[in-house]
Specification:
This protein has 1 helix and 35 strands. The chain is mainly beta. It is globular and about 60 Å long.
């Protein structure tokens, strides 16, 4: 059998469901628009029509929506910090159904919390849903994380199909008031496995890890322990958190995740690395660790990796951004560094927190604020005051570089973002962190094409479907108005893809 044929067979086996069902290309069925997380979609919008983008509708929620909406056919699926998961009509914005999630008040801000922490990592749902077509007697599902619980709901009705708790200390009973563990990670389905990471945000006595759960039950098939010492012993010291989503390399049978740091900034075995796991067994295939071992600043790798797969099924590109302000392009098979490009110093609230987009030739992505968030006696505490680039606020904040060698194509200031970038129709779409607008740029030049207004700030990514942009609004700094918004030219009803 020819190598190309083998690659195509592997691709079909790994990336299809049990029945081989699929969703139309015009939909946005998961975080990053697929298991390779290219964040590159289709759109009927043009550089001319984006100038007329206006809200077609807004569906209100009780708190922020920071997960990127999933859109399949005429239905938008997304969860909110208000502890509900919603399905609404793409065309009208009307509610189809909603599902009440389990309370986990240890995750803040929780609904009705009087003193709101502006620096929170997010409320109950930050995980975008994966839409899995039905197979056999199993209905089509939407699968997502809410706190430390992984949910699978029937996509048509919203009825619970299964749920499973993945807590910060799995040996003990679930503790919703004391355990702040959560699934930031947006799930990816490969065959009969649901892949995702668990984050404990430095909580002492707990640990992060990576899971493959059974698609039919939600029960664990395998776990990869990221909070271990050099000999592999589990530490339960608040390390090993994983808030990136798994990126699938189909010809290699691997899933790639980035990991966070420890509260002590120690260089633990799997702290601040990119690692690849065998999808079938959960065994480690390779680890990439950035070479700056002396830098003790916040260098979480939480953005989700971009992968490029050619028509023969071969993975030709793999890249991931870090809070250290670097984007790393790696060899997909070995994890060896191909090139790196640094854009800012990074730090506590800086660097690539959100994911970049990759269209086969160009990587585009926004960095966040900077080394902001640590204070003592009312004064900002920087990680490395001796470095003039280590500042609270860092520019430029929007970046485009060649996927071949990392050379800069353009940079732009004033575009700080906590939401993933999307590329579609030769345009890049991103929500600004502290402005009530979507920023639309020409991918080639970086020129601003439009800044359509929003009812509130937006920390979600953007789904491009038909002639619409679909996104969430509301943040930790300003909870309301919150909800789901669809933008279209002139604010007309969105075009729904034909199925």
């Amino acid at each position: 059998m020819a190598a190309t044929t083998v690659a195509l067979v592997v691709l079909a086996v790994l990336c299809s469901g049990p029945t081989g069902a699929s969703v139309p290309a015009a939909d946005w069925p998961s975080f990053g628009d697929g298991p390779q997380h290219t964040f590159t979609g289709l759109t009927e919008l043009t550089p001319s029509s984006v100038a007329t983008l206006r809200p077609a509708w807004r569906f209100p929620t009780g708190d922020a929506v920071t997960a990127t909406p999933t859109v399949v056919g005429d239905t938008v699926y997304v969860g909110s910090w208000d502890r509900f998961f919603y399905a609404v009509s793409l065309r009208t914005g009307r509610l189809r159904w909603r599902y009440r999630l389990q309370d986990q008040p240890s995750v803040t801000p929780y609904p009705g919390e009087k003193t709101r922490n502006v620096g929170t990592d997010g409320g109950l749902v930050t995980s975008s849903a994966w839409y899995e077509p039905g197979g056999g007697r199993r209905p089509a599902l939407v699968i997502f994380g809410g706190g430390y619980t992984l949910y699978a709901l029937a996509a048509r009705t919203g009825h619970l199909y299964w749920s499973h708790d993945y807590t910060g200390l799995p040996a003990l009973p679930a503790d919703p008031t004391g355990d702040g563990a959560r699934i930031f990670s947006s799930p990816v389905v490969v065959g009969t496995k649901v892949l995702f990471g668990v984050d404990v945000d430095g909580q002492p006595g707990e640990r992060g890890y990576i899971v493959a759960a059974d698609l039919g039950t939600g029960d664990p098939v395998w776990e990869f322990q990221t909070d271990v010492n050099r000999s592999g012993r589990i530490l339960n010291d608040g390390c090993g958190s994983v808030w990136s989503s798994g990126t699938v390399l189909p010809d290699l049978g691997l899933a790639v995740f980035g990991t966070a740091d420890c509260p002590t900034n120690s260089k633990a075995r799997y702290s601040e690395v990119v690692l690849a796991l065998d999808i079938r067994t959960g065994r480690l295939a390779w680890v990439f660790r950035p070479d700056d071992e002396t830098n003790q600043c916040d260098q979480d790798i939480g953005a989700t990796a971009n992968a490029g797969v050619d028509p023969s099924g071969t993975t030709t590109f793999l890249g991931e951004g870090s809070k250290d302000g670097d984007y790393y392009a790696l060899d997909p098979a070995t994890g060896r560094l191909r090139w790196e490009h640094n854009v800012v110093f990074g730090g506590a609230a800086g660097g690539f927190i959100a994911s970049t987009a990759y269209d086969g030739q160009v990587v585009v992505g926004a960095t966040a604020v900077g080394d902001y968030g640590h204070f003592k006696a009312g004064k900002a505490v920087l990680c490395d005051p001796s470095d003039p680039r280590d500042t609270q606020f860092q520019q430029p904040s929007d970046h485009a570089f060649s996927a071949v060698d990392g050379s800069v194509l353009w940079d732009a200031a004033g575009a700080d973002s906590f939401g993933a970038t999307t590329i579609a129709g030769g345009m890049a779409f991103n929500c600004q962190a502290f402005a009530e607008v979507v920023e639309v740029r020409d991918v080639t030049s970086g020129a601003i094409l439009a800044k359509p207004p929003l009812p509130n700030e937006c920390w979600s990514g953007i789904a491009t479907v038909g002639d619409a942009l679909v996104l969430g609004v509301g943040t930790s700094a300003r909870a309301l108005p919150a909800g789901i918004v669809a933008l279209t030219p002139g604010g007309r009803a969105p075009i729904v893809s034909r199925r």
